[in-house]
Amino acid sequence: MQVRQLSVLLGLTAMAVACGGEPVPEPVEMTPGLHAFVGARIIDGTGAAAVENGVLVVRDGRIEAVGASGTLDVPADAEQIDVAGRTIMPGMINAHGHINNIQGLDQVEYTEALVERQLGLYARYGVTTVFSLGGDGPEGMAVRDRQDTPDLDRARLYVAGNIVTGPSPKEAREQVKAVAESGADIVKIRIDDNLGSTTKMTQETYQAVIEAAHEQGLKLAAHMYYLEDAKGLLEAGADLLAHSVRDLEVDDTLIALLRDSGVCYCPTLMREVSTFVYESRPDWFDDTFFSKEVDPAVIAALDSPEWRERSTTASAQTYKTQLDVAKRNLKTLFDAGIPIAMGTDTGPAARFQGYFEHGELALMVEAGLTPMQAIVASTSGAARCMEVDADLGSLQPGKWADFLVLAANPLDDITNTTSLETVYIAGNAVPGA
Q: Model confidence over 182-199: pLDDT tens digits?
């Protein structure tokens, strides 16, 4: 991508010069923080048709104008950035990720520096906003509280704090109060018995959690696995199904509950992949888009007999089989008009922040969504589901200028999101992207 400073006429000098007495144009001083990205195909994230040969004007971190070349005036004092032949799309929003105390495959101290490192990693892969659904401490909240600035150059963060576990309704209510007082953005619970190996939170307890969260003015995101639990959570007032239904095909009752409530569905298909994929060497180990951000020692550890064994357990193979169920359910729910928010559950060991989000888009397309539909689910759709769409998720005037510059068109092939050249957050190029 070539950046060029253009001198534009504001007026003409009164003095004539040589060469036929033609007037000399006066140079224009560029205004700091004002940039015009010109010539790219622009996918605005709303689902509208892409604009060919577009212009995106950014002032002080926010979008000032966007449209086809020739339909809007480029400010004369804007620095013009030539992106001809590229595609611009909004930065991806991960509605279910994690910023945690994992580095590589190991647990480390959870610090502000670690939080910022992980947000930088997400950003370099084009994920510009992350909802961290559990395991978040005051360090993460401190980093979050510094993000409302035009100087930002790493991913934005929203947090769930400690996951509410109960086990009793009284204890659960106390935990919700503590989560709210910690400054969390959303409450998270887990309704799952891990394929029969643990005890599930009771319906009485999760009803109390949901009521307490709403009393505190917070939405409730639910980890779930089974169809019946998804129905129970929706009947109790949950605000986000943070995984796929994986045990059975979804039915008309669940569809009606989702449609009537307006609750969003977050498939996290790559979470299932992570449970079994290391049974053999994944193709992506040889993908430079992956390996450029991964310690070779981590790849070596995952490409070992020990991890092969972990990936061939009965539970891993169950998740492998039920990935197909999850994909069919995604397509069924999408076709029924249920809002979809892209999420991956990245952050735990061997679930790679940033890279897995590109895999999630590819799996959504494999499930039957079009590339445009998958892009919407990862941009404006996720923003609406997580209630940050006033500022994020689409390339529209007034919103933060969080966007990606791609060498190839993802509408032709969704895997072209990996042709990522540059990431901008608040109009700032992300270092190392």
A: 999 999 999 999 999 999
